[in-house]
Design a protein that fits this description.
By secondary structure, the chain is α/β, with parallel strands linked by helices. The chain has 3 domains: 13-260, Aminohydrolase, N-terminal nucleophile (Ntn) domain (Glutamine Phosphoribosylpyrophosphate, subunit 1, domain 1), CATH 3.60.20; 263-447, Glucose-6-phosphate isomerase like protein, domain 1 (Rossmann fold); 460-605, Glucose-6-phosphate isomerase like protein, domain 1 (Rossmann fold, 3-Layer(aba) Sandwich), CATH 3.40.50.10490. It has 20 helices and 25 strands. The longest helix has 23 residues, at 449-471. It has an 8-stranded antiparallel sheet with strand order 3-2-4-1-10-9-11-15. The structure holds fructose -6-phosphate. The site of fructose -6-phosphate has 15 residues, from helix 9 and helix 16.
Length: 619
């Protein structure tokens, strides 16, 4: 395998298809489905390029993909070869000119790109000297002009494409069409993910399986350094100038088109919150069928375990590390992936680094794992996407079955990550013969967590809507917990910030009196997570907050006898009785609901929070 350069990436989505004239699929439908599926990756602008009868048609604009889909003439597009793009701006502001596809001077070559061309300024300078005229501020546009340059020296299209690619430094997933090769899409991958989809009478190239899964589930995951072209009937792939046989690389993936529909919900986020019982049950049974013996062995022998992740995945990592320490007494530390450098000198041969990532593509986590491996640690990927780069590059892979998560805010992947980490702890307790942990009870508790999730969803929707009505009027909120409650509080705060744009912070409750309490005034919302585990430690913190006028919301088991809850809470979200491990898995659910309904009350779109993208592949 070619070891990729470590580069920066951007967060765009790309789709391309080449179909035969006999295929019944229509160009506008394929593009519409593909762009909608990709929009979660980036959504400040979008565009398409279609080749038909020797003509290149380009439609692009700033704003959502719907603008492109609804543009005049879109439904009449009739091409056998087309590419599309959704953008999350890195080089150049969101604007029509900066939207992809980008073209050469003669508008015969169109390029869509996900990634960052690090040497684009040098290339642009050379091309400008040669007289090329640029129309955007993007790094991507140099690619179209470079191909044009090599063609002007007499190269055929594909050769010119290959020469252009060889000059690029950085990260790229590319799809290129050229009027002179009207049946083909050229593609190349380095660092940024890219897949080929093999249909009947149609082939696809895309950054995301979801964009074409409606048409085929036969895929080839491209490796760094690979390039080639697709036509309606053919896939040509090369690495380092040598042809690559794809027949042994074709995989049939289990992802049905329905699982990426909204299924009657207004938003993907709601669908994903409500399908948590299913995601948990699926993940639990998938864990039971995975052979974890090697992973358990390296964990049992590890000097130290690091669990790394970003955002929501970091919160799950924190909870996992607490479980390693509290249940098993093992040396475990959770780290934000982008801060992995803090410990890199401390990593020793035999340490284990678990990378937690829904997408398996988050660059910070990928880089942390690469560094860990270089230092001699063993790496374990805990991912929702077994075909991802993180899965491919890790020594061991543990795969969740949460199903595709489309909404930008992670929900079902948090609870399934927590379930998975606790399952590993339980199996490790069994493996090392721990006398402190009843691993059978732990596994049993995890097994029923999907039922607990179902009961929570049934019981807490109305109360969370009522809380959202209150929160929608507020500027800030605190989320407080202790021990395991801290990462859950952090996850609740992140959700509220992300999709309801309310400033929210989480603290260990005991820490709140060391500064944060200064902000408390009449009506300031404070959400306490009573996990039924060391709850008594929260009592005085609740009292302190109430005494200063805080509006207290508590998440607590309905049967709790703690007087602070009844005495000081303005609102109680009553949780069903459940074993600790099932509570750890499920207590984020009401917090997700609160954030979701608050976003709705504020008239926002929870699926597309501003400035964010689903898969963060920028350093
Ligand atoms: C928050 C959220 C992000 C991701 C983070 C890591 O709702 O979705 O914070 O959790 O970007 O992503 P993955 O898990 O794909 O590595």
């Amino acid at each position: 395998m070619v070891v990729p350069r470590i580069g920066k990436q951007s967060l765009c989505g790309i789709i391309g298809f080449a179909k035969s004239s006999k295929a019944s699929l229509r160009c506008p439908e394929i593009l519409r489905d593909g762009l909608r599926r990709l929009e979660y990756r980036g959504y400040d602008s979008a565009g398409i390029a279609v080749l038909s009868q020797g003509l290149l048609t380009i439609v692009k604009d700033v704003g959502s993909v719907e603008k492109i889909i609804e543009s005049p003439g879109f439904s009449m597009l009739d091409g056998g070869v087309a590419i599309g793009h959704t953008r999350w701006a890195t080089h150049g502001k969101p604007s029509k000119d900066n939207a992809h596809p980008h073209t050469d001077c003669r508008k015969r070559i169109a390029v869509v790109h996900n990634g960052i061309i690090e040497n684009y300024m040098d290339l642009k300078r050379l091309l400008l000297e040669e007289g090329h005229v640029f129309t955007s501020e993007t790094d991507t546009e140099v690619i179209a002009h470079l191909i044009e340059h090599f063609k002007s020296l007499g190269e055929k299209s594909f050769e010119a494409f290959k020469k252009a690619v060889s000059m690029l430094r950085g990260s790229y997933a590319l799809a290129v069409i050229d009027v002179d090769e009207p049946d083909k899409i050229f593609f190349a991958r380095n660092v940024s993910p890219l897949l080929i989809g093999l249909g009947s009478g149609v082939n696809f190239v895309s950054s995301d399986l979801a964009s074409f899964v409606k048409y085929t589930n036969r895929v080839v995951v491209l490796m760094d350094g690979e390039l080639g072209y697709i036509s309606a009937s053919d896939v040509h792939l090369e690495l380092g100038g040598k042809p690559v046989d794809i027949s042994s690389r074709i995989r049939v993936v289990e992802l049905d088109a329905q699982s990426i529909e909204k299924g009657g919900f207004h938003h993907y986020m709601a669908k994903e919150i409500f399908e948590q019982p299913y995601a948990l049950a699926q993940t639990f049974s998938a864990l039971q069928t995975q052979n974890l013996s090697e992973v358990l062995k390296i964990l049992a022998e590890a000097r130290r375990v690091y669990i790394v992740g970003a955002g929501t995945s970091y919160h799950a990592s924190l909870l996992g590390a607490i479980a390693f320490k509290r249940f098993l007494g093992l040396e475990a530390e959770a780290l934000i992936s982008s801060e992995f450098k803090v410990v890199s000198r401390a990593i020793k041969w035999g340490d284990v680094v678990i990378g937690v990532s829904q997408s398996g593509e988050t660059i910070d986590t990928l880089l942390a794992l690469r560094e860990a491996r270089e230092k001699g640690a063993k790496t374990v990927a805990l991912v929702n996407n077994p075909f991802s780069t993180i899965a491919r590059e890790s020594d061991y892979v543990i795969s969740m079955r949460a199903g595709p998560e489309i909404a930008v805010a992670a929900t079902k992947t948090f609870t399934t990550q927590v379930l998975t980490l606790l399952y590993i702890v339980a199996r490790l307790a069994e493996f090392i013969g721990s006398i402190d942990v009843d691993y059978r009870a732990l596994i049993q508790g995890l097994k029923i967590s999907h039922e607990v999730a179902q009961n929570i969803l049934k019981a807490s929707v109305e109360i969370c809507k009522a809380i959202a009505t209150e929160l929608a009027r507020k500027q800030s909120a605190y989320y407080l917990g202790r021990v395991f409650g801290v990462p859950i509080a952090m996850e609740g705060a992140l959700k509220l910030k992300e999709i309801a744009y309310i400033h929210a912070e989480a603290y260990p409750a005991g820490e709140s009196k060391h500064g944060p309490i200064a902000l408390i005034e009449n009506g300031f919302p404070v959400i306490f997570i009573y996990l039924g585990f060391l709850d008594e430690l929260l009592e005085s913190n609740v009292e302190e907050m109430k005494a200063r006028g805080a509006y207290i919301i508590t998440v607590a088991q309905g049967d709790t006898t703690l007087s602070s809850i009844a005495r000081y809470s303005n609102t109680i979200i009553k949780m069903p009785k459940a074993p600790l491990e099932a509570r750890l898995v499920t207590y984020a659910i009401p917090l997700q609901l609160i954030a979701y309904y608050t976003s709705i009350m504020k008239g926002l779109d929870p699926d597309k929070p501003r400035n964010l993208a689903k898969t963060v592949t920028v350093i």
